[in-house]
Amino acid sequence: MIYAEILAGGIGRRMGNSDIPKQFLMLGTKPIIIHTLEQFLLVPEIAKVLVGCPKDWMGYMSDLVLKYIGTNEKIVIIEGGKDRNGTIMNGCHYIEENFGIGKKDILITHDAVRPFVDYRILTDNIKAAQKYDAVDTIIPATDTIVESLDGKVLSSVPIREYLYQGQTPQTFNIKELVEIYNSLTEDEKKILTDACKMFVIKNKKVGFVRGAEYNLKVTTMHDLKLANAILEVGLQDD
Amino acid sequence: MINCHYRLQSPKRIGLDFVEEEETEDTVVVRPTYLSICAADERYYQGKRDPKVLSKKLPMCLIHEAVGEVLKDPRGQFKPGTKVVLIPNTPLEHDEVVKENYLRSSKFRASGFDGFMQSLVLMNRDRIIPYENVSDRIAVLFELMSVTMNAIEHFNQYSHLKKQTIGVWGCGNVGYVTSLILKKIFPNAKIVVMGTNANKLHYFQFADETYLVTDLPEDFSVDHAFECVGGSGAESAINQMIDVINPQGSIALMGVSENLVGINTRMVLEKGITLLGNSRSGYEDFEAAIKFLENHPETIEYFEKIISKEVVVHSIADMTTAFDLDSSVDFKTIMKWEI
Q1: Does the pTM exceed 0.95?
Q2: Residues B152 and B130 in one domain
């Protein structure tokens, strides 16, 4: 089975002056998270789309779904975790309790605030997940990435040719994901905030698919302005 | 839903626009699988249209020949994964007499509004037709076949019964498809193809005879003619048809010309020739095209021959490669849509 989980657990402190978590802010005529959710609902292979969101906002999220999408048995709203991986693990637990976890079951995880994800990126993730233990979505780094260990001077300037920027979706074999996560110590869990990194450290094969520059993450007011500027609100037939 | 529209912004420049589109109970979400470039698309792409037309119509998604797979149908009429051909003509009204493709109010993809170069296409449910038992790369030619079906229906309605020799002028895509379909629908007629390119005429081995337009035999005549030339060559082609057609024959016009065409109307009158205008196609013509291929599966290998290039599209650069290639190939360029 193929599951998806939209990660909306965060309360979006980076957005600054808004009390509403950033994933609920309007982009065009709908909240960001609804746009994101709609893209997942267009992929027939995905059996369930979980939405992991803060406990206090679960009712609000349900209202949004009802208002903008309507009743849809594919959508399940669950409580998010303490952190990103906690939200993902809550999703895995939900799947285990309700459907059981098959050996080949996969989970496509995605940032709620990347509403420009598209059909191609999602289906590429599904295809790649048949070959690898985990899949990351990446684009080549365009800026030079530099490293500074003390925050004052550069410690190294890695060769850009080998560097990529990670986006989402990230897709995992659920069984492996749960096993790896459970094998981590509490200290490791604090450091390993990226689930793909857990797989890399455990020497698992993490494949990647081509993301897109436009698969941007709306994390600041500037991003939101930009996202609204590039989105044209059209009629059904233009 | 947010959708990616790959629009021609100005000649040779394709850009990505994000459009928030409204799904309704009547719309079906389709993922295009194959798109085929038509001469009309190529004219837009190369900037070979009147600058006033270009400034009015661009930016616009090109392509009106496409097939795809259903992703979502709120009413469940079409199951996910159903292969469908997309109909570019979009009527806004119904008329008891006038066909949908001739209604002045009808809109047409990649002409009056965005064509199929989109990540997903929202289609009205009456603008898609399922197909099976034929590969997607052949199915993408259904639109071209439907245009011939529209012309043949018109021809059947208005031409006299003597159809011993039918001449087809033009050795491009439309000429090829039209002469091939005529050969099957009128098995007792002699199908003769006239062209200007000897190399391309070699592809027409199924025809009874082929001639360069400069080498027609002296006593050559046809009962009826199909003009599949268009552009600047249309004038000399139509006048040649008028010269060689037998009295009271009909000439089915199918080629689009940017400029006015001067023809020998004196001879049109003297011979009592019927000129039949044909343009585009509608739902019934697509149905006829699908049925044609079901009844004549042996033609599939002939249709394969006019797919000159297939370009797998992962990026905008791949799209421009396809359009650039298309201007130099013998027949058609199709795009496998994986963006």
Answers
A1: no
A2: no
